[in-house]
Write the structure tokens for this entry.
Amino acid sequence: MLGAIFGDIIGSTRELHNVKTEEFELFPAGSHFTDDTVMTVAVAEKLLNDHSGCNSRKAYATRYKQYYNRYRNAGFGQMFSKWAESDTLRIQRSYGNGAAMRVTAIGYAFDDLKPLLKEVKASCYYTHHNREAIKSAKAVATCVFLARKQENKDSIKRTIEKMYGYRFQPLDEIRRDYVFDSRASYSVPPALEAFFESDSYESAIRKAISIGGDSDTIACITGGIAEAYYREIPKEIATRGNLIIDSGLRRVVREFNEVMNVE
Ligand SMILES: [Mg+2]
């Protein structure tokens, strides 16, 4: 999960100033964690502490609201903020990439795809009640799951194409006219492609940022998968990244990794 969080931090300064290259400073001044990190940790915390089973939908929604309230200034979008601030638990039909950016932990929490995908759906229920958003979240969690199982990248790619109907384009083509658009169907395939073309955690993050667009979210998604696959984050990235997350978030991550046996 730290892979996703560090991706978010590294992308945080690049969202407004896209770099479109793999050569850039990883942690320039102002690097910070954003809503992607906060929601990723909220999902992990739900998995750790809620075993109500059939009420997973509500448990997720409750966590989202709690974490939103704790980290209101993390960069949440207007639509999500409005939902989080309302007193009632209403269903929102967002097609944004917010459902996909936060599911890394679900990819670690199950040993079979079927219950895993059911959990992903529950995590989307109140905020992203939308076919494209749910599909994208399922695709990301499936990738984390298969990467964790050390399936090879070609086979992961074929599985995702078959299960979700995504068509992947090389990054060199995507990058040319890629702009900011936080629609799930526009953010997720490029984020996965950055992983497919990578050969290490760091190269995956660099490729993800080089696409441009919603950089923190794209790198968060790519980073979560890349960590599960490469099982190694360069020390320098881990040290710098860890200094940026606060102790409350770090505690949940540590506990989650202990319970799930993540190194
Ligand atoms: Mg963000």
